[in-house]
Amino acid sequence: MKNSIELSTIPAGSKIRVGAPAERPEGAIDALLKLFAGKENVVSARLGLMEIQYPEGGSEFMYTIGIECSADETSTIQEAIDTISTIREGRWPISIVPPASQYFSSEAIVFYSQNTKRKNFLGRLLRRN
Cα separation of 81 and 53, whole Å? Predict the structure, then answer.
């Protein structure tokens, strides 16, 4: 089963708990890393876990992915959505949300960073010499 794209809102009166997932959606992360590798505008990307507790009872878990861009954010997020929709569905659905928001805790996992990309590139360059 593939991921699907849905626009949704959190009902008024719901409570939100955020944290870091113990189990990561590796297929989605790998696909996004490949996408971001060719994009100079992606500054960082993080992964979190959110639980929505509904006012009428019941709750729902979902992965949250936040993508920070220096430019062309709308296009990049659409490409990320298109990429994730081709990946086999993981344990929970994935939501793309603003990276600097109430959807991430301090334990959020930064799985992509331009700084890391530059360090890895420089490290490979220096090892070749």
Answer: 25
